[in-house]
Amino acid sequence: MQLQGKTAIVTGASSGIGAEFSKALTEKGCRVFGLARRSDRLEELRSRLGDLFVPVVQDVNDFEGVEAWVGSTFSGDNRPDVLVNNAGLGLFGAVDELPPEDWDTMIQTNLTSVFRLTRLIVPFMKQSDSVTHIVNIASVAGLIGNPNISGYNATKFAIRGFSEALMKELRNDRIKVTCIYPGSVATEFFEQHGGTHSHMLQGRDVAGTLVHILETPDNFLIDEITVRPLVPKPPQK
């Protein structure tokens, strides 16, 4: 895909790799609708990225609001070419201590909101004369389970299955589907869960991987990719 002049949607765009995705895409000449809840972060991002970045103050869990935004923004003459389902959160704890509402919040944010937005965007992509692309951001937690993150694991494993099924369902409509499994990235997410360190991936590098995936030839599909630090932890002194 030639990104110049294309239109993308990035959820969770106000910080972390979502902000880096938005930056990388606008630098390629792509108009980016960045969805997030924090208006101040979105406005700050627009001041840095310019008019190609379009802030959208929208909670992905407000399904009626998302549907209204899609309906008022896109049409047969104005269709999205790229959807990056990036918004997500992690609430950790032992299975017998994790509050049920935390489980419900993760299921809704990490999984249900992805389905809801995707089902609204796919009809526009099916109308396109060009190849379009859906990218779902999972985690290495979607590949291997670990203690005390069972709820987060469950949502990311589910995104893996959703992505594979979606890829097989939509490939003949010339819609690519890719699932990315990042390891530890130096972002706000990890600042809230144990802190960051110098051996973590950088958000700009994950964004570079996204651009590479999107720019592959039309009949070339990377359906899954895992990105992680070569050396995940600083050497012990």
Average pLDDT value? 94
CATH architecture field: 3-Layer(aba) Sandwich
- Could you list the spans in which at least 5 consecutive residues all have pLDDT below 50? none
Helix/strand-derived category reads alpha/beta
Total E-strand runs = 7
Gross geometry = globular
Share of helix, binned: 40-55%
Report the total helices: 7
Determine the strand fraction and express it as a percent band. 15-25%
The Rg value, from CA coordinates, equals 17 Å
Question: So, the CATH homologous superfamily?
Answer: NAD(P)-binding Rossmann-like Domain
The succession of helices and strands, N to C, reads EHEHEHEHEHEHHE
Overall number of domains: 1
State the major sheet: 7 strands, parallel
Could you name the CATH topology? Rossmann fold
> How far apart are the termini?
46 Å
CATH classification class:
Alpha Beta
Question: Reading side by side through the largest sheet, how are the strands ordered?
Answer: 3-2-1-4-5-6-7
Folded structure, characterized:
There is one protein chain. This protein is of the alpha/beta class and 237 residues long. The protein has one domain: NAD(P)-binding Rossmann-like Domain (Rossmann fold, 3-Layer(aba) Sandwich), CATH 3.40.50.720. 41% of the residues lie in helices and 16% in strands. It contains seven helices and seven strands. It has helices at 16-27, 39-49, 63-73, 100-126, 150-170, 188-191, 203-214, and strands at residues 7-11, 31-36, 53-57, 82-85, 132-137, 175-182, 224-227. A seven-stranded parallel β-sheet has the order 3-2-1-4-5-6-7, sandwiched between helices.
